[in-house]
Amino acid sequence: MSIIATKNLNYFYQDGDMQRYILRDVSVDFEKGKFYTIVGESGSGKTTFLSMIAGLDSPKSGEVLFDGSDIKKLGYENYRRNKISLVFQNNNLVPYLTAAENVLVAMDITDNELPSDQKTVAYNLLDYIGITREKADRLVSELSGGEQQRIAIARALATNSDVILADEPTGNLDEEREAEIVEIFKRLAHENGKAVVVVTHSQEVADKSDVTYRLKKGNLINE
Ligand SMILES: Nc1ncnc2c1ncn2[C@@H]1O[C@H](COP(=O)(O)OP(=O)(O)OP(=O)(O)O)[C@@H](O)[C@H]1O
């Protein structure tokens, strides 16, 4: 059973009198336990698609379903806060907080039930994705790009959601760092049972995912 599904999703940008379609009748399922990538030429609509399934924007017609319910009915804000986690290329961490504090902030925001000892959980999550205790107590601005992206992933895990959505999460990283981040995504899908959906320009990242969709002329095609 899919955790996220789209049904006949349509989206266009208004261009004067014209409607420029970016997504045409897109119906696709994402399951827990799988690592998905979405590829496509620049401007093909990858980020637009991710914004739909992240509840950041609403489709012109069609539905995004979470566990069978239209996310519009769940409420976009509730959906974003509690059901999914987002990771961006520029990681959106708070630079003047430590790594651990960044993870703790995310725990504060969610309504999901979390273990009471949040500090321990934050350090454990960071440790799980390769940030040592010493680095966890450093300001984010004093860590490398690859380390920052790991922290962004630890933060995404802090709310305990079943879905990780990422837009070009390795866009600023060299090949080696990219490969490390990809291994983390694989682990989150295969060992932790999450649905991981990553928009990427990188063929290497796509090659390591379980399922790749290519966005072309408004359609998502399984590769
Ligand atoms: N707010 C907007 N108003 C009008 N057109 C837009 C808007 N946002 C995006 N577009 C256009 O919609 C198309 C799809 O954009 P989108 O960012 O989804 O593509 P993408 O595949 O993620 O591209 P990239 O790989 O370059 O990030 C592009 O042609 C873009 O110029």
From TrEMBL:
Transmembrane segments: none annotated. It is a peripheral membrane protein. GO terms for cellular component: plasma membrane. Its main location: membrane. GO terms for molecular function: ATP binding; ATP hydrolysis activity; transmembrane transporter activity. Residues 4-223 form the ABC transporter domain. Keywords: ATP-binding, Nucleotide-binding, Transport. It catalyses: ATP + H2O = ADP + phosphate + H(+). It is found in: Cell membrane. The keyword Cell inner membrane does not apply. The keyword Transport applies. Belongs to the ABC transporter superfamily. Part of the ABC transporter FtsEX involved in cellular division. Has ATPase activity. Essential for cell division and viability. This is ABC transporter ATP-binding protein. It comes from Pseudolactococcus hodotermopsidis.
